Amino acid sequence: MPTGPRRVAELETAFPDDVIVRFGEGDARAIGVYRRAIDDRARGVVVVVLGPGMTADAAVDSTFLRRSLPRERWATLTITLPDEANEVIPPRQRGNAGDDAPVATPNDTAQAQTKVASAAPDPTPALVRARLDTAVKAAREKGAKVVVLGELAAGAWIVWAQQQGLGADAVVAINTPRNSPRIDGQTPRDTLAALKSPALLLFETPFDWSVDDRLAADVTLRRLPPGNPAGERLDRQIRGWLNRRFDSRG
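-> structure tokens emitted (250 positions)
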């Protein structure tokens, strides 16, 4: 069984059916794990986006938030990004195939690689966008406000998707590197400089961010205070920002 479907099957046995939200079909099938807000007057839903290969019960800071935010009237829906597509391998050169075999020139190789790239563009952005679109739609059915949160590279993907029209009310990126990954030719810093919706970027060194970075007007850049455990520090910062950003009177 492929890795993605196997992880889905494992999670379906690890969590009760009433907290599972299903996405997609066939090999693209995935699930999210929903956690209701303790207070019935929930402010909204935070979609916690984990990187490829991770699950809702992973021991990372984001999954701490999955459990802590519902105590503050924010339900959570935890999903995983799809696995990255395999890189396109350029055609093999034939220079060692025999005396009569044509030898590929640099120009031939460049043209072949261009044809491969044109015929098989990277499907990862479309897969990620589809996953996030479905998650935001599911979250919107459960709460009036939807905030999408991601850690490390997942933060870059959600900021990119939001710029492309994801439709979340706000996004939160945690320890997302400044210059990678590049998505559609843009770094996370490029995307946050052009973003036209509320965003919170929390970072620790050595991720190269600076309070002097020129980002969009509605982007809050904040360095995490030192201390452990990291999950509790994140919870305080995110909770405070959400309370200030959205009407706390609920």
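The chain has one domain: 3-84+121-245.
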